[in-house]
């Protein structure tokens, strides 16, 4: 069975890079009928891991990604890690090192002065004398001193690390007994049954160390996929300014879950030249083997384009529900269909759509002066008066086309161009020159409100 996991450190929120590897891991597990597990890497106990886990689960929930089983918290597993530390000590695969901080610093300084790589020199590797007093020993694992460690990476191919260049007998438990990062990751991935690790390639340099732990304990090494970073268009690592913010900020900005997931799946992965993927298609097509080898570029326009696509293609019923998060209660609005149809082609985000809806259903507080100047020329007043009279006299006004006919009648009777009624009417109804089709606007706000807005505009324009 394929078991993947997402293993965030509790920074307090889920960011876009993390979400992408989580998505890849999720898709691969689901595609294979496997499991997608969540582990909070909270060995740094100062941070609030509960809150972090909740933030992640909340973001997953918004996006429709659910993890399987209980969440694993590293901070609660010290007893488990202690068992494996003891086992390695008992088997002579790890040892206590009594070097003091001063000694370690001195060694580093000397190595740096000699232009050597700073590394532990193994002085306690075979030690069986009397330990020095007053030192809480750290525990070091016996790493291979020579030879190669090969990471068989599903994205990068075989990545060969020379033991002497990168390894030393690294610490697996500190003086206070607390285990270290690379040690616990290897133990947890094994105990959680993780078969495939998909993570950012900023972790590639940790992998040989984790392999040392796997091998020392006789665990089988999972398959690794190290995913290249997301860059901004200057080719630099994505920063907060570029969009590496809290995933929930994308909700606030008005992006739909589908658009965000679709955007992310294409950052660093492709399936021919397909751009639009439903969740089902993603699951069907995704294979970590096809993750690109080079960094991907974050492109806001593409995200907006996808978002417009999904807004356009979301059924109105569902759209109305999504808009509730932006303070719009439209589900039982009688003109919901006309309203959403008039706007779904125009809005790039749900937030913008909510704004556009409000601009229609709430009467303008004031009329834009420039727009008034431009639109209210010549016989604009008479045109609007005629139109208002026709609206008052009409019995059945429901559809946009009903209003359109009345506008046409005025145009014909007064022998004017359509712009002569369109422009002043638009300013009267919406307070400005832009916005969706007027016939839709009037069908949405209804007969009485149409007349009221026209009259109010005429009263304001002396
Ligand atoms: N906790 C690490 C991070 O948040 C991930 C480690 C891993 O996936 O192995 O970057």
Short descriptors:
three-stranded parallel beta sheet, binds glutamic acid, mainly alpha, 462 residues, 19 helices, three-stranded antiparallel beta sheet, 48% helix, Rossmann fold, 3 domains, Arc Repressor Mutant, subunit A
Structure characterization notes:
By secondary structure, the chain is mainly alpha-helical. It is built from 19 helices and twelve strands. It folds into three domains: 1-69 and 228-313, Rossmann fold (3-Layer(aba) Sandwich); 78-227, Rossmann fold, CATH 3.40.50.620; 369-460, Orthogonal Bundle (Arc Repressor Mutant, subunit A), CATH 1.10.10. The chain has helices spanning 16-31, 49-63, 78-90, 101-113, 163-166, 181-191, 207-217, 247-253, 257-265, 279-285, 300-313, 316-323, 336-343, 350-361, 369-375, 380-393, 400-414, 418-430, 438-460, and strands spanning 3-6, 35-40, 72-73, 94-97, 138-141, 148-153, 157-162, 171-173, 196-200, 223-227, 230-231, 296-297. Helix 1 (16-31) links the parallel strand 1 and strand 2. Helix 12 crosses helix 13 and helix 16 packs across helix 18 (418-430). The N and C termini lie far apart (77 Å). Bound molecules: glutamic acid.
Offer a concise description of the structure.
This protein is mainly α and 462 residues long. It is built from 19 helices and twelve strands. It has helices at residues 16-31, 49-63, 78-90, 101-113, 163-166, 181-191, 207-217, 247-253, 257-265, 279-285, 300-313, 316-323, 336-343, 350-361, 369-375, 380-393, 400-414, 418-430, 438-460; strands at 3-6, 35-40, 72-73, 94-97, 138-141, 148-153, 157-162, 171-173, 196-200, 223-227, 230-231, 296-297.
């Amino acid at each position: 069975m394929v078991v993947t996991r997402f293993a965030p450190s509790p920074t307090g929120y889920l960011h876009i890079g993390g979400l992408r590897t989580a998505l890849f891991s999720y898709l691969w597990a689901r595609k294979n009928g496997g499991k997608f597990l969540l582990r909070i890497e909270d060995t740094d106990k100062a941070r609030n891991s509960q809150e972090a886990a909740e933030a992640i689960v909340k973001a997953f929930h918004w996006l429709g990604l659910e993890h399987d089983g209980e969440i694993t918290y590293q901070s609660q597993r010290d007893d488990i890690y202690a068992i494996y530390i003891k086992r390695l000590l008992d088997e002579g695969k790890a040892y206590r090192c009594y070097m003091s901080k001063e000694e370690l610093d001195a060694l580093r300084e000397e190595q740096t002065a000699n232009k050597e790589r700073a590394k532990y020199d193994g002085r306690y590797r075979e030690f069986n004398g009397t330990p020095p007093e007053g030192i809480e020993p750290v525990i070091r694992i016996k790493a291979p001193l020579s030879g190669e460690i090969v990471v068989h990476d599903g994205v990068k191919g075989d990545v060969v690390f020379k033991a002497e260049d990168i390894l030393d007998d690294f610490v697996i438990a500190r003086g206070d007994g607390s285990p270290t990062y690379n040690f616990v990751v290897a133990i947890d991935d094994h105990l959680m049954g993780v078969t495939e690790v998909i993570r950012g390639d900023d972790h590639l340099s940790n992998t040989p160390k984790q392999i040392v732990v796997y091998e020392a304990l006789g665990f089988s090494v999972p398959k690794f996929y190290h995913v290249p970073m997301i860059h901004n268009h200057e080719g630099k690592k994505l920063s907060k300014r570029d969009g590496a913010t809290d995933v929930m900020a994308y909700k606030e900005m008005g992006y739909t879950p589908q658009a965000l997931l679709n955007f992310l799946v294409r950052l660093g992965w492709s399936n021919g030249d397909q751009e639009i993927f439903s969740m089902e298609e993603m699951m069907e097509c995704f294979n970590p083997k096809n993750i690109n080898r080079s960094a991907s570029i974050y492109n806001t326009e593409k995200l907006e384009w996808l978002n417009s696509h999904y807004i356009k293609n979301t059924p109105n019923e569902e759209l109305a529900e999504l808009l509730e998060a932006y303070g719009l209660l439209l589900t039982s609005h009688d003109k919901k269909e006309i309203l959403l149809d008039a706007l779904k082609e125009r809005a790039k985000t749900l937030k913008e759509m909510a704004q556009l809806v409000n601009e229609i259903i709430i009467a303008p507080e004031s009329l834009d002066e420039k727009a008034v100047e431009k639109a209210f020329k010549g016989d604009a007043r008479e045109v609007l008066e005629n139109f208002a009279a026709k609206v008052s006299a009409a019995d059945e006004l429901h559809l946009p086309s009903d209003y359109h006919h009345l506008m046409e009648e005025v145009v014909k009777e007064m022998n004017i161009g359509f712009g002569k009624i369109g422009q002043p009417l638009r300013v009267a109804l919406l307070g400005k020159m832009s916005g969706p089709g007027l016939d839709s606007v009037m069908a949405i706000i209804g007969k009485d409100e149409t007349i009221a807005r026209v009259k109010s505009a005429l009263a304001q324009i002396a």
